[in-house]
């Protein structure tokens, strides 16, 4: 993931608690409205939730999208092509000033090519963490972490070729020591 060169830093010594609570509530409202649209698959309305100059930053495998149009073209469209019957479950949601974040699971059916894997029609769980910065009533910055390695494993491809550290946890290998 690349660093946001336009990062907004908060001077916490200058933040009034009542203003912080108000901003947190507004951020929560904006992001929850977007999540509701996502859950209804109302992608035709997403432009009302995201800034046109959106900065979308994903972990390796997800890419970096500059602008709302690229976000739709290079993230939303490929996800919809690869996965149908999508159900989003937010496990935790936090709002803090201009930022909000969540941990969730996207359950979907693998119906299109994903990371070179032909459609399997398997139901998969896609773990994710989303962070959003709201500015002027829209999502302006969206760092995300989507566990595509886990999805690949569910579809039969171990991207770590058995070298993942789960082997230490399940007793298949001894963890190295310094």
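^ Assign residues to that structure.
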């Amino acid at each position: 993931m690349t660093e946001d060169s336009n990062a907004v830093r908060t001077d916490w010594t200058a933040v009034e608690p009542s203003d912080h609570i108000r901003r947190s509530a507004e951020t929560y409202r904006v992001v929850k409205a977007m999540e509701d649209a996502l859950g209804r698959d109302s992608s035709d309305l997403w432009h009302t939730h995201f800034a046109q100059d959106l900065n979308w930053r994903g972990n390796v495998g997800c890419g970096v999208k500059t602008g709302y149009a690229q976000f739709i073209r290079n993230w939303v469209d490929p996800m919809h092509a690869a996965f149908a019957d999508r159900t989003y479950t937010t496990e935790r949601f936090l709002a803090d000033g201009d930022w909000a974040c969540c941990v969730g699971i996207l359950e979907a059916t693998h119906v299109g090519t994903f990371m070179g894997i032909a459609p399997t029609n398997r139901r998969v769980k896609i773990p994710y963490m989303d962070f959003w910065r709201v500015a002027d009533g829209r999502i302006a910055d969206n760092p995300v972490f989507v566990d595509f390695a886990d999805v690949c494993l569910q579809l039969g491809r171990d991207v770590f070729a058995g070298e993942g550290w789960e082997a230490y946890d399940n007793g298949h290998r001894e963890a190295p020591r310094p």
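The first strand starts at residue 50 and ends at 58.
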